[in-house]
What we know:
mainly alpha, elongated, 2 strands
Amino acid sequence: MIDARDFLRKHGAAASGMAPPSSTAGKPDEEQQRCYAAAVKSLEAAGTNENGLRRRLRRKAYSAQAIDDTVNRLTRLGLLDDEEYAESLCRRCIRRQMGEQGFLRQCRAKGVDLTMARMIAAEARGQGLFERSAEAFATDLASRIAAADAQVRRRRLVSAIRAKGQDWNLVRKYLDF
């Protein structure tokens, strides 16, 4: 993800045409500036998608016009990219040994467009990423629950598969009990 402060320092807001629109001649709209600053700070702290950013800015009570202008500006500058965010979320879910359903659940929670999320999930599935995630998940889980009796192992396995959104058929291939 691009560091917003570095980007703004290197390119300068006024020099690159990034200065916020003015409500009066020569005087920038203060709400627009505050909204933009809050959005950049939010993106820097934790990347997000358009829906997530809009939610955060609405909670801070910015006007719909200020939010729209800010989102359009950040998108135009390449600082807000929903597809890049969804791909990043997919990589994060796979690193956390989550399955396809877990990734889609995360997308719904974060407000990612489900059509885009399904497209990215299909691409990840085609590359075998969810299969590798299931293998790592099963290997780790098996080593953690090996000492438990059969009933406890089964209960923990079902619970973990559900929590991680893993596919039972993929996980089962890598379990030996």
